[in-house]
């Protein structure tokens, strides 16, 4: 049942997978920068921009599916997670810009560890729980 | 440490970032629970809302720094620590009391125990930067 639900779900797919992988790679990269006492570099900001593009793409796909009459299992939670997830990379960006030290990299790392969790929760709230 | 460090710089900024994340998580969770199923577990949901408020005020206190900001953050971190320990113990001892999850249930296990560690880190950070208050 789950695979059938996943196949029809707009938030499962290449964009979600790309977002999760990119976010984790970015978290790893930022962690290395933190341990090396490096401020957030160009690669981290480029990664955040790319991650935001993937997540915005995911949001557009989800909204198109909603426009086409599909409905998430838990609409309230789904929209909450959708809004949250597209706000996370900009939040990391702004805070990392404010903190041009190793702690800026630590902020990027922390937020990039949270983002995949939110994407997975987004996918779970699309499927009908207990269905 | 050579010079007093401001509360809202360096590691403090990372702490603020994590407080913002928890403020978002707790606020949306409490808002949704109260809006959709308040009758099911009013105590748990009001507690979620209180936790959300504390995270927001703590983040603002840390970010504003200064004497008032530090006092605010100190109060919030203390209440938060008491809250997560109290609710943690109660939720383990008597599951009927909190039929639905809150941020602080089971010492915040649903959030990787970060709710338990966060106030401790906050208090340690306030202690380490205490010279900034003078």
What does this protein structure show overall?
The complex is a heterodimer of chains A (131) and B (134). Chain A is mostly helical and 131 residues long. In chain A, 79% of the residues lie in helices and 0% in strands. Chain A contains five helices and no strands. Chain A has helices spanning 2-8, 14-35, 42-67, 75-98, 102-126. In chain A, helix 4 (75-98) runs antiparallel to helix 5. In chain B, helix 1 (11-37) runs antiparallel to helix 2 (42-64). The mean pLDDT of chain B is 89. At the A-B interface, helix 4 and helix 5 of A face helix 1 of B.
List the helices and strands and how they pair.
The complex is a heterodimer of chains A (131) and B (134).
Chain A: H1 2-8, H2 14-35, H3 42-67, H4 75-98, H5 102-126
Helix pairs in contact in A: 2-3, 2-5, 3-4, 4-5
Chain B: H1 11-37, H2 42-64, H3 66-93, H4 114-128
Helix pairs in contact in B: 1-2, 1-4, 2-3, 3-4
Briefly characterize the structure.
By secondary structure, chain A is mostly helical. Chain A has five helices and no strands.
User: What series of H and E elements makes up the topology of chain A?
Assistant: HHHHH
- Structural class of chain B, by secondary structure, is mainly alpha
Largest sheet of chain B: none
User: Oligomeric state of the chains?
Assistant: heterodimer
How big a fraction of the residues of chain A is strand? Answer: under 5%
- CA gyration radius of chain A, whole angstroms: 16 Å
Key structural traits:
heterodimer; A: 131 residues; mainly alpha; 5 helices; elongated; B: 134 residues; 0% strand
